[in-house]
Here is the input.
Amino acid sequence: MKYLILGAGPAGLTFANKLLQSGEDNFLIIEQEETAGGLCRSVNVDGSPFDIGGGHFLDVRCSQVNKFLFQFMPENEWNIYNRKTTLHVNNNVIGQPIEANIWQMKISDQIEYLKSIAIAGCNLGEPMPKKFIDWIYWKLGKKIAEDYMIPYNQKIFSKDLDLLGTYWLDKLPNVSFDETLLSCLTKKAYGKNPGHTQFYYPKKYGYGELWLRMAAVLGDRIVYGISVNGINFNTRTVTTDNGAKYQADVIITTIPWIEFDELIGMPEEIKNSICELKYSSIQTEYHSDHLDTESHWIYFPNPELSYHRILVRHNFCPNSKGYWTETNRERIGMEKTNDNFKYMNQYAYPLNTIKKPEIMKRLLDWSKEQKVYGLGRWGEHSHYNSDVTVALAMKMADTMINYIME
Here is the structure.
């Protein structure tokens, strides 16, 4: 075939549908699961949708992405919400981001946090550190670092945070002492709004419904229940667990590189470096209790709690009840055993380790020369939201289509 796509998550489905819309139908998607959607799949739990991969929403600001996706699930099937998130820190319940909402804390805590931010390295003009934990102190000050950022990131990513680099943190806004002080004096938030300030969520379904509809358009161009074993770069052939082989002019992989048992033709140093890529596994768990809160999701840095985040389902999924927690695999077992519905996402978050940029650049540059392209959260080993993944897949498809037409 002309195009072979590995994985029927947001990246693979978007790329394939863009091909089809351009008139190209010589492609196939191979999917390990029995249904499409990847991390964005939904199942029915207790009479309502449950998003097994955690919290996934469409950012209202991504107009081009949403215009494309609304072809499959029209805009009138979505609700728009003004994001409400809260953080439980140091016996305070405040809004997010923390630096813009210190004014909601007790006065005594506001004083301590302001004093800490005032002497943070970034506010004193000190050079940016290269280690992640040092960067947290430099960027946010001692109080935010120790009460929130360090414990929360240890819970979601890794106990050893110095495995992580700082190259991915440029997108975070500066924590200005002046703006933080002004917010405390005027009792309102200042600074840049976080992502998904407004977001879409389906009126009648879970988020996974969108991807099922995109898969339905593709019909039998997706084969399910087949795991990929390896790639032969010399022949651009993919081998699978059922013994079948698929050959293509171009291969698009959206699955974790670490999943391949064989990478024939790949230089040994690149192949060995893939083993250095790290990721975290996250379990989602359903709870039927009603929470007395207007928040859509809530953050918990307290290390005594196993989970790091709660998604309050009844506040964004109509006619539902309960909430779900997200817990790093390393922390499973801290809570009491129960019969709640649980789902373990082995591949949840790619970790931005210090060597990752170098590893991925070398890997993706080399594989691209062989006409094998990494795409999306796992194909590029980057922590992309689904709307970002769709944008990247649209761009890659357009680039390839235009190149062929020329």
